[in-house]
């Protein structure tokens, strides 16, 4: 079995659970936050799509990036937001997380960081 160097990943995937969070109802101001989060990470923003579930039932949204994506899904009735940030290249997804954290102001968070897509050694064929 070929050994891959875990230090050379194609991208970083940050998954955050924001508990006791705020700003979970209205997707309109979240659009600007998505743009700020992309810029903070050094990512190229391609498009933002948001959907309001209405009746203060939360929203879902995704910022499509040249380097992958930032997504949020909110459950206001549980004061919870699910955050997903995946970026490749020289982008720093933790800077995006900082922007989202400042906006949603979670009382608690659970964080997972995954390295994705390992680079194959030169000369190795699949």
Written account of the structure:
The chain has 126 residues and is α+β, with helices and mostly antiparallel strands. The chain is built from two helices and six strands. It has helices at 27-41, 93-104, and strands at 9-19, 45-52, 59-65, 68-75, 80-88, 108-118. The protein has a six-stranded antiparallel sheet, with helices on one face. It is elongated and about 55 Å long. The relative contact order is 0.33. The mean pLDDT is 91.
Key structural traits:
single chain, 126 residues, alpha+beta, 6-stranded antiparallel sheet, 6 strands, 21% helix
Can I get a quick summary?
By secondary structure, this protein is of the alpha+beta class. The protein has helices at residues 27-41, 93-104, and strands at 9-19, 45-52, 59-65, 68-75, 80-88, 108-118. It has two helices and six strands, in the order βαββββαβ.
As a percent range, the share of strand residues is: 35-45%
Uncertain regions spanning at least 5 consecutive residues: none
- Written as H for each helix and E for each strand, in order along the chain, the element string is EHEEEEHE
Oligomer status: single chain
Our measurement of the CA-to-CA distance between the termini, rounded to an integer number of angstroms, reads 12 Å
Rg over CA atoms, rounded to whole Å, is 16 Å
> Structural class of the helix and strand makeup?
alpha+beta
What fraction, in percent, of the residue positions are helical? 10-25%
Task: Count all strands and give the number.
Answer: 6
User: How many individual helices?
Assistant: 2
Largest sheet: 6 strands, antiparallel
**Backbone shape:** elongated
Widest β-sheet, arrangement of strands: 2-3-4-5-1-6
- Mean pLDDT across all residues, rounded? 91
